[in-house]
Amino acid sequence: MDQSPRQTRIAPGPKESALRAARAVYGRIERSPAAPMLRTRVVQRTRRRLQRRMHATEVLEVLDGLKASGLAVWVAGGWGVDALLGAQTRQHDDLDLIVDLAQEGDAQAALRGLGFRRIRAEFFEGALMPKQIIMRDRAGRIVDLHGVDARTWPGSWRELLDRAGRSAVPFDPAKPFAVGMIEGRPVECLSPELQLASRQVYELPDSAATDARALCARFQLAEPQYLRAVT
Are 50 and 22 spatial neighbours (Cβ–Cβ below 8 Å)? Predict the structure, then answer.
């Protein structure tokens, strides 16, 4: 009688086993009352070593999975910049996705179907995308889901900046999105103007300043005032 061939499982090496154990410990702390200690710089540097980079093909797999669930999302963050530039310029620790608040729950469900689970939610007062739901899979890849109210956003954010006297970077609220390219495929993403505007409300790491300058050069946009303070 014919027998199906057995599948051989390859045991993870010592390094991978240690990383899995460390990720598991980190995840338990994230869901405990001790979670605030994870915000320190030392712990955050360790976290970046524990998580996997999000590669271009994996970005497309996530986007395809969400599209198959009937969801509209837009790429933001570092991958959003590289989509606008049409090429990957650096490595990315995570994938930032914008979704309409009305579909936020469905997006989380779809991501769970792709192997991601919710770690925590964060809120950043004054940011372009203040709400963030962090989801991670067993491999350590991270998707940051940003729910926005599509009925009023990003005009509501500009009104907030106007009231605070911080509207230094112009953008058209009626045109928040653009089409970029990842691995030769068109993807919906945040517009270059909003990418620049979003950076005016926080202290820029080197990578964010480099991204902003690349966008200015690519789309012939005036360099924002905040870049002059960054060497």
Answer: yes
